[in-house]
Design brief:
Elements (H helix, E strand, L loop, with lengths): L7 E2 L6 E2 L13 H13 L32 E3 L4 E3 L1 H9 L8 E2 L19 E3 L4 E3 L1 H5 L8 E3 H110 L4 H20 L12 H31 L14 E3 L5 E4 L18 E3 L8 E9 L1 E8 L18 E6 L5 E5 L2 E4 L8 E7 L4 E7 L5 E8 L6 E8 L6 E5 L3
Antiparallel strand pairs: 1-2, 3-4, 3-5, 6-7, 6-8, 9-10, 10-21, 11-20, 12-17, 12-21, 13-14, 13-20, 14-15, 15-16, 17-18, 18-19
Keywords: Coiled coil, Immunity, Innate immunity, Metal-binding, Zinc, Zinc-finger
Pfam families: PRY (PF13765), SPRY (PF00622), zf-B_box (PF00643), zf-RING_UBOX (PF13445)
GO molecular function, one term: zinc ion binding
Length: 508
């Protein structure tokens, strides 16, 4: 049947391969081509594998027992009788005990391939050690003494048991892959339908906000310039009014003096001159008002423009920071199956509250049974992420490996093991950071109840911050580590009398 160590050339792909096991027809193929041909045969609805090389040589196998004028197609070939049988003539082989040991196979045109070339006996046994087919005479001659020799049917049954196990394993793996493909498609659909639209909307919102800020800056600069111009015009008008007053007064004196010079009555001239002499001389001797050169205060304009520009830059940076947070924000919901019975989860899976009495919830392997904790549905194993929470009461917010224990007391509390990092606010509003049972007291306190978590999985960075006024982040504590497993967010709530609760804020 061919040497196992001999090199062969695959007739389909022309690659050289070794350890060939020829097919019953005698042809040999490399494993990949054989698997492809076998899969193609199954895909075409064929009941049995057909050698791709001798496919065209195979014709209709006819029954050897049918009359020549009524010949029927064979459905089986008996290797003991070395004949092919149609459906009708096959019945004795199926029904009579005398034929029970006969080996039936798919119809064959050439039985010689199933016969020992040395003894001309049909192969009925298989040597497991040499991995070759043998006939009864080969066994009698002692060629396979001390070897494990089994009947072909026995080997077939054993191999089918093993193949069934492999088939079930492959079937299970196919299901797992199909689930992964479906999850991947859902994730892609979510990214396409939600995230992309949201991201574009966020960018457009930022663009609109920046355009608004640019418009405000331009309007402010125009208004500042116009106001300065208006003020300069008012100053010029005031100076002009004073100059006109001097002109009118001087013209009045000029006319009075002219009239006195034309006066013919000396007594009237002397009286008039002496009466107005002191005031007239004072008015004539007073210096004329000389207005400054009209100009605009460019320095003040520039100072005002610079102030407006700083406001514009500050607002632009704020928009960019908001956009960055929005783009980094990852979807987050609570896993009801993991929630302790003392935690009440909202319908939208975005809020959790500590209650006094245990809720009626079904048993679940993922459920925390000692600490009143819950984890997120989403699991993260790469990337940069950002979330904002509204927190109240006695709470514990953690980044934890999804594999954290859920049962019993020891090693399952957030921050009390090597696989979780948490920030806790106690009943006295004091903050503490926890990891591997080590507690770090924080000197700062939160002035509000708006908390932010920034996570960089690849760099192993976890940053807890308070979201202050104007959306500014006030850092509270930072953990640096190296993640080796997928992580999720965890929430612990204590003291129901403090109305302890956490709400995941949705970035829009």
């Amino acid at each position: 049947m061919g040497s196992m160590g001999e090199e062969h050339t695959c007739p389909m792909c022309r690659d050289v391969f070794g350890r060939a096991q020829p097919f019953p027809c005698g042809h040999s193929f490399c494993l990949s081509c054989a698997q492809e041909a076998w899969s193609s045969s199954a895909g075409c609805g064929k009941r049995r594998f057909v050698c791709p090389q001798c496919l065209e040589e195979q014709g209709l196998v006819v029954c050897d027992c049918c009359p020549e004028d009524e010949v029927q197609a064979a459905v089986k070939t008996c290797l003991r009788c070395e004949i092919s049988l149609c459906e009708q003539h096959l019945q004795p082989h199926l029904q009579r005990p005398a034929y029970s040991t006969h080996l039936l196979v798919e119809p064959l045109m050439d039985v010689s391939r199933r016969r020992c070339p040395t003894h001309q006996e049909v192969f009925r046994h298989y040597c497991m050690d040499d991995r070759v087919y043998v006939c009864p005479d080969c066994i009698l001659e002692g060629r396979h003494a001390q070897h494990q020799v089994k009947g072909v049917r026995k080997v077939e049954e054993e191999y089918k048991v093993k193949l069934q196990s492999l088939f079930e394993k492959a079937e299970e793996k196919v299901k797992q892959v199909e689930i992964m493909v479906q999850e991947h498609q859902n994730a892609c659909r979510t990214i396409i339908e939600d995230s992309s639209v949201s991201d574009v909307s966020q960018v457009l919102q930022m663009g609109s906000a920046l355009q608004t800020q640019v418009g405000r800056l331009v309007s402010a600069v125009i208004n500042i310039t116009e106001q300065e111009r208006q003020q300069a015009m008012e100053r010029v008008q005031e100076d002009y009014s004073r100059v006109r007053e001097d002109l009118n007064q001087t013209e009045s004196i000029h006319r009075f003096l002219g009239s006195l010079l034309d006066e013919r009555d000396p007594f009237l001239l002397i009286w008039a001159y002496q009466t107005e002499d002191s005031q007239m001389m004072a008015d004539l001797n007073s210096p004329l008002f000389t207005p400054p050169q009209p100009s605009m205060d460019k320095k003040r304009i520039l100072e005002n423009v610079e102030n407006k520009y700083r406001e514009f830059i500050s607002e632009t940076l704020r928009c960019l920071i908001e956009l960055k947070r929005d783009l980094l924000s990852s979807p987050l919901t609570l896993d009801k199956n993991s929630a302790h019975p003392l935690l009440n989860i909202s319908e939208d899976l975005r809020s959790v509250m500590r209650v006094k009495n245990r809720l009626s919830v079904p048993e679940h392997p993922d459920r925390f049974d000692h600490w009143s904790q819950v984890v997120s549905c989403q699991i993260f194993s790469s990337g940069t992420h950002y979330w904002e929470l509204e927190v109240e009461g006695f709470w514990d917010i953690a980044v934890t490996y999804h594999s954290i224990g859920r049962k019993a007391k020891e090693g399952t509390a957030f921050g009390c093991n090597k696989i979780s990092w948490s920030l806790t606010q106690q009943h006295d509003k004091k903050l503490a950071a926890w990891h591997n049972r080590k507690k770090t007291h924080l000197s700062v306190k939160m002035s509000g109840n708006h908390l932010a978590i920034a996570l960089d999985y690849d760099s192993g960075s976890i940053t807890f911050s308070e979201v202050g006024s104007s959306s500014t982040l006030l850092p509270l504590h930072n953990f640096s580590t190296s993640f080796t497993q997928p992580i999720c967010l965890g929430f612990g709530l204590y003291k129901p009398e403090l109305n302890s609760r956490v709400t995941i804020l949705k970035k829009i």
